[in-house]
Amino acid sequence: MEARLVDALPEGAGWQFEPKWDGFRAIASRWGDRVELMSKSGKSLARFFPEVVAVLRACREQSFVVDGELILPVGKVLSFDALQARLHPAASRIAKLAVETPAQFMMFDCLALGDTELVGAPLARRREAVELFHRSEGNATLLISPTTECPIEANAWLERSGGALDGVIAKPRDAPYLAGERAMMKVKQHRTADCVVGGFRRSKSGPLVASLLLGLYDEAGMLNHVGFTSALGDEDKSKLTAKLETLVGPPGFTGKAPGGPSRWNNGAEQDWVPLKPELVVEVTFDQVTGDRFRHGTGLLRWRPDKAPRQCRMEQLKYDLRPSELGEI
C-alpha cells in the first residue's frame, strides 16, 4: 500500500499519523524457517541484509508478515548512502558491512500474525497486532514507528524536526490494507537551496534548454555538481537559452562534474554545456543522498541578489540523528 503526495495533512478524527522514514520500504515475512524481505518492486532484499534476516528468524513467533522500512544508522545520522552500499554483488562485502553498519527494521503495519490474516482488517486492528508483535519480539533491530491521532502533533513533527524527517504519513484507521493502491496520504519536507548554474543540457529534440545543472562550492572553493532542475515551469525556454548561450565557456564545474557513463544512464555519455558561474537560482528539493539531490529539483526563482560564492555545500546538511527516534 502506497501514499499519494498532498500539500497538507487531513484534519478531523479517523486518521493515524506516522513519521515518514527515509529508507528502503520492505515487507518482512516468516513462515517457519523461511524468511523474506521483499521490496516494493517485488524483488528480494534478504541477501543484502543478513543481520535483519537473522533477527526475524530468531523470533519466537513462527508466522508473521509485517510492513516497514529498512533504515541504517551510521555514527550520528541515518544514512541512505549506507543502505545503497548494501546492494552489492559480493556476499563477502555484504557480510562485512552487516557487522560494521547493521541495519534496523522500522515496523508500522501487520498483515498476518500467527494464524490470523489481517489484510482485510482495519488499520486500528492491524496497529494493535504490530504493537503486540513488537512487545513480544522488539529489540535493537526490530523497531516500531511512533503514531498519533492528533493532526496538531503530526504537524509539530514536521515543524520541530528542522528538516530531519522525510515527511509524515496519514492513514485512515478504518481502512483495510489495500496493496498496490495509494490509499494513504503523505506530506513531504520540501526545502530550498540557492545553487550556481554551472551548465545545462539541451532538449533531445532541439537546441533549447531542457534542464539546468546545479552546483555548490565546497570548503576548497571547488564548484561541485549536486543535481539538476527536473522542470523549468513557465520559463520562456527560447529566451532562457539565449541568456545561457552568452555565458557558455569554462570553467563550468571545477569539482565533481556531471555526465559520464553510470548505472543511472545505462552507461551512456550525457552531453552538457559548461557555463561561467554567474547565475544563481533557488530550487526546491525533498531528499539528499550523500552530497547531491536525490531527485530532480524544482525551479523556484532566480536570485540575482545572491553572489555565486555564497552558494555552499552546507545547505545540503539535513541529517536525521538516530537519537531523534527516541525524541519523537
Describe this structure in words.
The longest helix has 15 residues, at 123-137. The chain has 328 residues and is of the alpha+beta class. The protein is 19% helix and 34% strand. The chain has helices at residues 50-57, 80-85, 91-100, 123-137, 151-160, 237-245, 323-327; strands spanning 2-5, 15-19, 24-31, 34-39, 63-71, 73-74, 77-78, 104-113, 116-117, 142-144, 167-172, 182-188, 191-202, 209-217, 223-231, 273-274, 280-285, 288-289, 292-293, 297-302. The chain folds into three domains: 1-21 and 147-189, Dna Ligase, domain 1, CATH 3.30.1490.70; 22-144, DNA ligase/mRNA capping enzyme (D-amino Acid Aminotransferase, Chain A, domain 1); 191-316, Nucleic acid-binding proteins (OB fold (Dihydrolipoamide Acetyltransferase, E2P)), CATH 2.40.50.
What's the structural blueprint in terms of helices and strands?
Elements: E1 2-5, E2 15-19, E3 24-31, E4 34-39, H1 50-57, E5 63-71, E6 73-74, E7 77-78, H2 80-85, H3 91-100, E8 104-113, E9 116-117, H4 123-137, E10 142-144, H5 151-160, E11 167-172, E12 182-188, E13 191-202, E14 209-217, E15 223-231, H6 237-245, E16 273-274, E17 280-285, E18 288-289, E19 292-293, E20 297-302, H7 323-327
Parallel strand pairs: 1-12, 8-10, 15-20
Antiparallel strand pairs: 2-11, 3-4, 3-5, 5-8, 6-7, 8-9, 11-12, 13-14, 13-16, 13-17, 14-15, 17-20, 18-19
